[in-house]
């Protein structure tokens, strides 16, 4: 049989029951678990005793067993299990029309994982969109031997990307994180300084500040854009504040006019973290081009990818020159092997840049596809109670890096985490939104940032690859509606 495995370790607890549990209780558990089975286990040891399908239970009821009798009274066929060490090849031979889930046991006979077999196409949250051009340019690097950071593709990629953003300079780097670090180094930020960042972001935004010895100061987000709330920035400014890093989260621009106005008032630099927002527009201008500098990531799940990679864009020549020096071991541009500042090796390779050049030739197409997919999702999901669609302000062009929704647990009937688990069973991958950075063990500021916490707790990113087809988006929306209807029925 053609198909793929999904592993569902996180479901084991939800569907495990003791043999002395009543049929009534186990039926509810099977319904809630949404896998059509319960795992019977020994109470204290967790040792596997057998699989009970909803078919086994219903047949037993027809034959006259009472709802209050224990499930141990149900006659059930022998369960198919496998050892946790079983290879995928061996596993696939065990599946059949009637066998869709196989408990995987450790040497003590405890269930340590579940393998679910599915013949439907697996829909990932993200996958790169690569083609012939990328292959051709990367092959060129290999055939010519220009595989390190010198080579024609690096400059070409930097120029193409700067032009795309509408800035004078583009300075590539080894990642979005190093691009952030470089931009802060160029501003001279260091120990004792403070830099304002949203807490609702990926950890790199704050870590890059910490790399310089400065402290990240966390500010809450606004519900309208999910980005840093400009109204809460001023109260976070102190005499030590040197810069603000607004993040254009999930592809929607932050409120740049207000942020730039505050920065101007307090003489602060602005570095836009546009790692997720290539091509997004703030009032008609490209994100990344509005502050003193903008940074981008080209990690494999980003709008375009170079495998790993990053870029700083700016109109400021002085900053651009400094970044080039910090990126290249702090080496003087005038004199080889002379190092006046402490620098890093943060260079992008020619191979990465070759990928980037190939990707730049289709970036507009990729963004258009992201927007078309978002439109299709929103059309299908807009009237479902308990679902909030991604931000889409009038003055902005969201490029929907990941199409992410918020789930109101009360109105939808289950949490975003539970919805994610149920979609996984249907071969649909989802991802929670970023957890609040101020609550990460390395920062743990004990602040109360309610919007950020709400976004993190209720958000879910749906499959957002540009390879996804219209009918696959319809399938996802249909599954979400079906899951919602099932929970509504469970509630009444
Ligand atoms: C908002 C944000 N900033 C910075 C980064 C860092 O980029 P990279 O992974 O390329 O270091 C990422 C992504 O991973 C990101 O999402």
Automatic annotation (TrEMBL):
Q: Does the keyword Transferase apply?
A: yes
User: What does the sequence similarity comment in the record state about its family?
Assistant: Belongs to the DegT/DnrJ/EryC1 family.
**Source organism, top-level taxon:** Bacteria
Fetch the SUPFAM superfamilies from UniProt. Answer: CBS-domain pair, PLP-dependent transferases
What are the recorded GO MF terms, alphabetically?
GDP-4-dehydro-6-deoxy-D-mannose-4-aminotransferase activity; pyridoxal phosphate binding
EC number(s) stated in the UniProt entry for this protein: 2.6.1.102
Under which main EC class is this enzyme filed?
transferase
| Names of the cofactor(s) | pyridoxal 5'-phosphate
Keyword list, A-Z: Aminotransferase, CBS domain, Pyridoxal phosphate, Transferase
Q: Name one GO biological process term.
A: polysaccharide biosynthetic process
- InterPro entries recorded: CBS_dom, CBS_dom_sf, DegT/StrS_aminotransferase, PyrdxlP-dep_Trfase, PyrdxlP-dep_Trfase_major, PyrdxlP-dep_Trfase_small
> Start and end of every CBS domain?
9-67
Q: Which organism is it from?
A: Desulfobacula toluolica (strain DSM 7467 / Tol2)
User: Can you say what this protein is called?
Assistant: GDP-perosamine synthase
Q: Which reaction does it catalyse?
A: GDP-alpha-D-perosamine + 2-oxoglutarate = GDP-4-dehydro-alpha-D-rhamnose + L-glutamate
CDD domains linked to this entry: AHBA_syn
Q: Which residues cross the membrane?
A: none
Task: Tell me the pathway.
Answer: Bacterial outer membrane biogenesis; LPS O-antigen biosynthesis
Q: Which Pfam families match?
A: CBS, DegT_DnrJ_EryC1
Report if keyword Signal is assigned: no
């Amino acid at each position: 049989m053609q198909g793929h495995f999904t592993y569902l370790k996180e479901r084991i607890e939800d569907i495990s029951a003791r043999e002395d549990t009543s049929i009534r209780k186990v039926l509810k558990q099977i319904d809630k678990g949404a896998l059509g089975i319960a795992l019977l286990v020994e109470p204290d040891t967790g040792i596997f005793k057998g699989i009970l399908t909803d078919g086994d239970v219903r047949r037993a009821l027809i034959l006259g067993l009472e709802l209050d009798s224990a499930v141990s009274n149900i006659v059930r066929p022998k369960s198919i299990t496998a050892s946790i060490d079983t290879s995928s090849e061996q596993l696939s031979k065990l599946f059949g029309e009637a066998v869709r889930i196989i408990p995987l046991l450790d040497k003590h006979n405890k269930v340590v994982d579940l393998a679910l077999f599915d013949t439907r196409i697996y829909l990932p949250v993200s996958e790169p969109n690569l083609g012939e051009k990328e292959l051709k340019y990367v092959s060129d690097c290999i055939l010519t031997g220009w595989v390190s950071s010198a080579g024609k593709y690096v400059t070409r990629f930097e120029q193409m990307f700067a032009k795309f953003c509408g800035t004078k300079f583009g300075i590539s780097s080894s990642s979005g994180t190093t691009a952030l670090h470089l931009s802060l180094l160029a501003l001279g930020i260091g120990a004792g300084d403070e830099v304002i960042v949203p807490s609702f972001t990926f950890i790199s935004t704050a870590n890059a500040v910490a790399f310089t010895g400065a402290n990240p100061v966390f500010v809450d987000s606004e519900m309208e854009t999910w980005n840093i709330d400009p109204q809460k920035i001023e109260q976070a400014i102190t005499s030590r504040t040197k810069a603000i890093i607004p993040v254009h989260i999930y592809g929607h621009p932050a409120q740049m006019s207000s942020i730039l106005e505050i920065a101007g008032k307090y003489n602060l630099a602005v570095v836009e973290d546009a790692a997720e927002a290539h091509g997004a527009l703030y009032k008609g201008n490209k994100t990344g081009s509005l502050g003193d500098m903008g940074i981008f990531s080209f990690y494999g799940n980003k709008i375009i990818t170079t495998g790993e990679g990053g870029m700083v864009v700016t109109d400021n020549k002085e900053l651009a020159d400094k970044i080039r020096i910090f990126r290249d071991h702090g080496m003087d541009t005038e004199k080889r092997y002379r190092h006046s500042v402490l620098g890093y090796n943060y260079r992008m390779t020619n191979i990465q840049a070759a990928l980037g050049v190939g990707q730049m030739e289709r970036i507009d197409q990729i963004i258009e596809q992201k927007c078309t997919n978002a439109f299709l999702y929103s059309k299908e999901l807009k009237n479902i109670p308990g679902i909030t669609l991604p931000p889409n302000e009038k003055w902005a062009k969201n490029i929907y890096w990941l199409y992410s929704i918020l789930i109101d647990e009360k109105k939808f009937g289950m949490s975003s985490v539970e919805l994610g688990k149920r979609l996984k069973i249907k071969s649909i991958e989802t991802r929670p939104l970023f957890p609040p950075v101020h609550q990460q063990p390395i920062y743990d500021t004990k602040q109360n940032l309610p919007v950020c916490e709400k976004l993190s707790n209720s958000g879910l990113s749906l499959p957002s690859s540009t390879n996804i087809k219209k009918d696959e988006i319809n399938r996802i929306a249909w599954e979400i509606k079906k899951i919602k209807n099932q929970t509504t029925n469970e509630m009444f």
